[in-house]
Amino acid sequence: MTSSMAIYNQPQTGLEAMGLKEYLRNTSVPVFLAVMVFAIASWIDLNGVWVEIPLMVNVLPEGWALPSYLVIITQIANVGPLAYTVAKKLAPRRVQEWWVVYVIIGVGLVACLLLVFFWDETSVVGGEEHSTALLVLTLFLALVDCTSSVVFLPYMAQYTAQYLNALYVGEGLSGLIPGVLGIVQGIGKDPTCVNGTRTDANGTEVGHVVYPVYDPPLFSVSVFFGILCVLLFASGFAFTLLHFHPRLREHKVSRIVVITAAAAGTRKSRPSPEESSSGIDSPSASVEVHSQDTTATDTDTTAVDAKTIQKSQSLDGISSISSSNIDSFSPKSLRVVVHLMLIGWINALSNGVLPSIQSYSCLPYGNLAYNLSVRLSILANPLACFFGLFVRTRSTVAFVVLAAIGTVFSAYHVAMAALSPYPPLYDHTAGVVLVVSTFVLLTAIFSYVKMSIAIALSHRGGARGLLWCGGVTQVGSCIGAIVIFVLVNVAKLFESKDPCA
After folding, report:
1. Which of 154, 249, 266, 406 sits between 20 and 30 A of 395, alpha carbons compared?
2. Which of 484, 473, 402, 457 is nearest to 164 (CA)?
3. What is the rounded distance in angstroms from the CA atom of residue 476 to the CA atom of residue 341?
4. Which residues of the chain fall short of a pLDDT of 50?
5. 18-41 burial, b for 16+ CB within 10 Å, e for fewer?
6. Can you give the pTM of this predicted structure?
7. Distance CA 425, CA 431 (A)
């Protein structure tokens, strides 16, 4: 048995397998950067909407309930990944990930451009005033961003695992960049309450009123969305280089052509469908690696020289997929079931429940507490993913323990929201520190666990494992969003308050 085949039986990735120097030497910096910048488009626009919520809740008619509307609209958009999955199943050759990526980035760019001009436009729906422009455009953003969960990951299955790391770093930056912009924009302070007069339709004074006045941010919400448009354009350009530039495209490993020992010098046998789709060789055969041009026909391959083959063999140790793991992957195995259950539960909390009640759990402690919890928690996501590049675990026990800790912090925030508008320590600095720190910590923990489980599923099932991961992510998020929307807007279990009351 060759050394490369021994590695197949014990698949490892990145720093785990090779050490920092070897890891960096076998990583193409242009490819890594292109993947990272392209992946920024995954959630940057929707994260941008969330960063601006602390400013929007003060002026839009939904008030503290605005996050719950945005969450349920985001989960309605799960029709996007569902439609994509069905289309991919029915027409796998026509529905290609690369052009779907362009649709995702293009729709996000147009929607952000419209938000620049219309984010605060309202209209009356069902007898109540609503932020129709924001809600409709958020729906389009959510459609493409949710779909990115089941498109970007399978697309990246063509690359070895260090580029999957780049994808997660880019997705983290899709939160980091809006978060930093939000902090630069200004951390909101509590408003100043000003006395004014109330007039009727004829302009006649009918009484006095006290209303809040908020300090203006460094730059407006419209400018913020304009910056996001520029970043989405950059993501589209990076993906174009990644997919079409010959020097970057040669790093794909989506095809490995199998040569039996008897045929080695005479002919090449065509890989089986499983081998073609997963890019894995037969354990009993010698291999010759070919780079696949995804824009060419199935029979087009580009031969690589001995140096490239040698490099490919060294990369076996950091490949995200192994033949034995692909063959043994089953969503019914106990470990995979636990991983998928954790993914579903964590996303139900982090993408459904917690964003919807964050205004109720944090705003009673002041506008500063809400701004900090929103923007620092968004910053915590990429930092947790960066941490995951160096501290790896595939231990199911570790995943369960970390998820349990995050769940405890989540329960604390649900309790504070239920006690709104006067939760414990609402008028103390200790309350502000506690509510902000716990939200940031639970976000970091959940982000790390989600990234680690996704990489573990990548090892076990390749593109299929990642597709299951993305699908369960959206199902869990949807269930959490529906439950909390009913509790917030139908059962009215959570109370807001007038800042000048």
Report:
1. 154
2. 457
3. 9
4. 1-15, 254-324, 327
5. beeeebeebbbeebbbbbbbbbbb
6. 0.75
7. 5
